[in-house]
Amino acid sequence: MFADYSWSELTAIFAMQGFAGLILFSVFVLMALGLAIIFGQMGVINMAHGEFMILGAYVTYLVSIFFAEALPALFPAYFFIAMILAFIAAGALGMFVEWAMIRHLYKRPLDTLLATWGLSLILQQVYRSVFGAREVGVTIPDWMMGSLPLTDMIEIPINGIFVMVLAIGISVGVYVMMYRSRWGQQVRAINQNRVMAGAVGINTEWTDRMTYGIGCGIAGVAGSAFTMIGSTGPTAGQLYIVDTFLVVVFGGAASLLGTIASAFTISQAQSIMEFFLSGSMAKVLTLLVVIGILMLRPQGLFALKLRK
Question: What is the model's pTM?
Fold first, then answer.
């Protein structure tokens, strides 16, 4: 497999695929952070998480069209507005879904799986009816175009750097929210003992709604980032939902550090193997390794220790 390449070519290949893996890692992290909040903290299996991501992507697409036609002078800054609107749109839809459906299904994980799977099919059809079945793409601002040459053989795309910086910033923000804010204390208290949390005055229903909304809102931001590296279609979210669940379970459902470490490991493995093997074979090998590790450590890489 490596015999056909020189050492310099292999070094360049691993460097380029490693950076491509970092871009994939950024999307995995943004998707998995929201899912880790919903699944890890609330125990809800949200199979519609990919559709919340695609909602953010479509919002970004609409904002790009609006700025290009109505406010061309501000077009270079449209992406920052689009991220905020994507978070609000996906978060608002998530809060509505929690109020209308999820709050009736707590402590019934299989029911949440089936309900959110049905929701994902409904949202896919809505996107197909509104935006059409064909994939759409956004126009990237000029300052995101091009690449930065590291060597004669290695170049790093600027939009990929931006996506990675965005992922790091949101990861830090989620950490601060979960471990340095009153909301995070309430979420963790409810996760450990819902009855006692309610007894000490925590509004568990509102906290659940906010938690679900924030998790879905982060998926919306992931959709905005996704438009920088790929096109958007009604079913594009389903391409990432399995990998995202794999990241969350492999890292430890309630562990932020585990989610990040798992996303990095899986994205790098897939990116490098996809160059030398087929994409499907890379996913199969990655899945087999993860299953083997989970058989030895079913709680994930960084499971939290809680007193029962």
Answer: 0.85
Are the C-beta atoms of residues 260 and 127 closer than 8 Å to each other? no
List the one residue out of 211, 301, 295, 288 whose CA is nearest residue 247: 301
- Domains of the chain, by residue range, sit at 20-241
Residue 175 CA to residue 195 CA, distance in Å, equals 25
What are the Cα distances from residue 199, in Å, to 189, 190, 193, 196, 249? Answer: 11, 11, 10, 5, 31
CA–CA–CA angle 259, 263, 264 (5° rounding): 120
pLDDT in tens, 169-203: 998 998 898 888 888 888 888 878 888 888 988 89
- Concatenating the DSSP letter of every residue in 74-133 gives GGGGHHHHHHHHHHHHHHHHHHHHHHHTGGGSTT-HHHHHHHHHHHHHHHHHHHHHHH-S
